[in-house]
Amino acid sequence: MAIEVKIPPMGESITSGVLAKWHVKDGDLVKKDQPLFELETDKITSEGTAESAGKITFKVVAGTDVKIGQVVATIDAEVSSQKSEVSPVPAALPPSSDVRPLTSSEASPAVRRLAAETGIDPATVAGTGKAGRVTKGDLLAATASKPPFVPPAAPAAAAPSPAIENPKSKIENPSAAARQTRTKMSKLRQTIASRLVAAQHEAAMLTTFNECDMSAVMALRAKYQDDFVKKNGVKLGFMSFFTKAVVQALRDVPAINAQIDGDEVVQNNYFDIGMAVSTDKGLMVPVIKNCDQLGMADIEKAIADAAKRARDGKITLTDLEGGVFTITNGGIFGSMLSTPILNAPQSAILGLHAINERPVAVNGQVVIRPMMYLALSYDHRLVDGKQAVTFLVKVKQLIEDPARLAIGI
Q1: Active site includes 384?
Q2: Active-site annotation holds for 353
Q3: Does domain 204-407 have CATH number 3.30.559.10?
């Protein structure tokens, strides 16, 4: 029985994609739930798995544009069943007065067809069917035990006589293939590109900056890290501090937690925060839901889980939807300063950067402190400069004095 392998549904907004890679070869015997292919859409990358064990036959090759519900392969479950039921048998009939050699004309149509394909004479195979009849399973077992055909090695071609070349011209005119390669942009990369350009064209984007002394947060992490890990099984990172600070700042400056929809302003009263994650296939922004209701450990666990699934290609469309604000951390790659681009339709995004020790003035004294630059990009159509600066200063205050996070001031 042939089972169709179809492109699975991904959500209402996804109707097509690219079958980017097959994880198996055409004709392989696959197991149930085994990953078969990688599907790349304009939003996410996911895997298709086998619904049944059997022999797979491709209908499309890797790199093909496919639609949701399209049949891309079939799995012959009968082959797997026969393979598991057949025990090894000798390649030739044992001597016996009760069993006589079979000829092709005693064989069923399926056996004759398989014999023509494999070149194995059914008369040389011990039959396990009724009255010693050779079954399709017997022939498949004999095929598996048959040594592979190794074609004779072709004679080596005579080496062409060396041509006289000008070494200088060879250096000055390298082949085009050595200088450039071309690959088609992935669906995800195309979408990222179009969304970034659209964000710059549609919003009146502006960025304001501030700097933040990370001494207090770093001291808290050093003091409580071991106990935090023992209790929660996850490290206490900087992102949970900034997430809680952003939630509190959004409460104080609600204009940042709003967005434009046509000629209307939509005020969001929830706190689902997007976390930008860099993957091999491009930037993804999984959303951590209800951050106002989560503790520091819950946020750290949620971020770690979302980042792992994004990098493993396990992220779902639901994971990427509904964010009201985004945090992106270029500091993990060493970025000192940047102007992050809005994640539309959101109205603002906070960029974090590398922590570097710098001389700063504190109470009239020059001291060395671990400092981070903060960048808030925002849509000036909706957010005024005063609101943006107030928001960023609030985040700075909460990070420099994290006790404020505990008492909510």
Answers
A1: yes
A2: no
A3: yes
